[in-house]
């Protein structure tokens, strides 16, 4: 049996000695071909084993990125942008070899325009770092994938997180990007105006393009005033369906919840073990409300009432900032908490998103599908958006488990797609969902994507092999 | 002196007789080459005189659109999608001849998914029609350009309007599109999932592409629950600066106003004349607040306080639905009201949008620039987004006035661009802003747009000559 995560690198292209020499001369200690460095840059949080790039360059500026791209373009050498390595679908594997360009040292906050509610950062700035640096401004940046990802990476995968139900995803929150194109030119995709009808939406074209159309080096995003009042709540339900129905009604009534997260009993167990919490091991919702004192109170009362009608109990409030921080840290660490439930495992995380009216069917269907699994599985997610994750903990060396996990993943995705939903709400396609995307988008839409790719990157040097098959 | 609105159609391509015969045979009375019909389809609300297409087809379905596109593709004949003809920058002029494909009879609401807060419509459905058909659902669609535009046209120009400050633009509110590509294929750009990371964002690529990349035939948009409480207010200010500063502070404090519109004294005069209102002829803000009873009250009190600090007076409330409707109808008709201040005139409308901190400078700068004008000018706009319009009423037959208007327009745009703003917040580029876009985006970004255009429409049949010069 072929291991389903054993990716071929038969298309690996050579890295010419002259290019290695040129990069080493130019970047000195910021250029590396050490095996450990290459391994680190050839994998992500997906279950795929590393396929290392041939070399790694640590860039410090947009101009340096452009230099590397121009060198790669000359010799048609692949180039893969790297942020913190937290992607989940094999985005970083160097399936055609080449150079990993690490942007983590491009971590400067370039311009806080507090009066405009915008900030411009280098692509390597992480979401936590940004919010730390914004603390004195009274503003915050809401997008929060589980990992402390970089804003460049979050742009490249069209990431979101727990706050998306209120604040939107990277798609809605990026105002403009600085991008190095495949021929080493530097473009800025938009002004800082809040809205624009000025030509093709290049910003949105690069958001979610997973490094295949250009290297994002700077990101301008929207900021929000820290709400006057914030309140969070945890509530347990007798069944998963009760929890999910509570969220569906919350959304349908237009309650502007900031966060509404579902966690199954197994996820809560993992969190308790990992984060030393004592949450009741039952289907659970985490809510957070943002607004003025009175609007937060109003939202909370309405949601509490809806929850009660669905058997919600043990409503616990976290109004003190430190309690809320503990709660949301626990939520953000849920993926890693799950991983620790099976030492040595790797996780496959599904990422379907469906119209809200189909959420209950989608999530209970996923539960039924997973009930047959021989390994631990958990459900959690951003249910207010119709998006949830099934986490499948498999032994990465066991091809049979991997095969089974892929089969279950397939079923969950197909169920979501049958409900006019998508195979990926926020993680992206990478290597792992190429087949799903083909079915979901259809051959003619994929053909448009291919034409765009060929038009912008004719030699296919930018993160080749990701999102779709080019040939 | 060449008249600045005299566009050449030297690039006009022939419409083969065989194609005329084929279209007539296929579409019967829904095919026309009558001069009046052609004239109507070769112009918009811009000051440009009509450049008529060679023929007009009224399509009834996506499949019919695809048939027309395939016929045009065969003979490399240009094709221009037409909604209601309310665009403002010469989008519809047939500068290379060809066929206008009128989608106004594709006006069916296809699927109201109330429980998902989405609706799918044919591209010819107008915003007013849609909200009329949604009345019984308790939901509404907020995007409201001045005209009763079609949702296809609004998608194609990335339109917005008075509600954008709270609900976003077409960019944020379209979930997915059905599009006929240049080779007559039909694609659906996305599922109905609220968020997705599934490949390139084709939805956003077509939004704002002004008919140059494909013909939008169906649109799925987000809906919102009609707020529990709505309240509107009108307030006058001693100076324009006072009004604008009130809005800036409202936004910077994060007050979730639904609408915040500025109208100068001249605009109010025009509205009073046109809509039989008796508003005081002074710099004025129209506000609207959406939410629960208590949150609306809270927002209104806060904004009232801010307005008072800036000398706001005569705070008038419109809480009854019929009063609000009268108020917003007056606002939406402001453009047409302005036009009537000078019989026989045509208007140039600027459309700059700047970061909110620069709004006061941008709008007072525009006022100074316009003070030299020899014809009537007005200022109004969606100031909560940093977007406003200067309306310049010129005699369309007077080349000197047109030249002067263009010079003033230039200055206003350049001022906005010097503030990291854009030449167009919501109207689009069309023919009129090709030069501005070039400067704003830069040659390398325009080059990417050109490559995308060539990749998706190699024979340049889709609304050729718009957004950028291709050669």
Automatic annotation (TrEMBL), chains A, B:
Residues 49-226 form the FAD-binding PCMH-type domain. GO terms for molecular function: D-lactate dehydrogenase (cytochrome) activity; D-lactate dehydrogenase (NAD+) activity; FAD binding. Its cofactor is FAD. Keywords: FAD, Flavoprotein, Oxidoreductase, Transit peptide. InterPro entries: FAD-bd_oxidored_4_C (IPR004113), FAD-bd_PCMH (IPR016166), FAD-bd_PCMH-like_sf (IPR036318), FAD-bd_PCMH_sub2 (IPR016169), FAD-linked_Oxase-like_C (IPR016164), Oxid_FAD_bind_N (IPR006094), Vanillyl_alc_oxidase_C-sub2 (IPR016171). SUPFAM superfamilies: FAD-binding/transporter-associated domain-like, FAD-linked oxidases, C-terminal domain. It comes from the Bacteria. It is an enzyme of class 1 (oxidoreductase). One of its GO terms (biological process) is lactate catabolic process. Its EC number is 1.1.2.4. Belongs to the FAD-binding oxidoreductase/transferase type 4 family. PANTHER family: D-LACTATE DEHYDROGENASE, D-LACTATE DEHYDROGENASE, MITOCHONDRIAL-RELATED. This is D-lactate dehydrogenase (cytochrome). It comes from Zeimonas arvi.
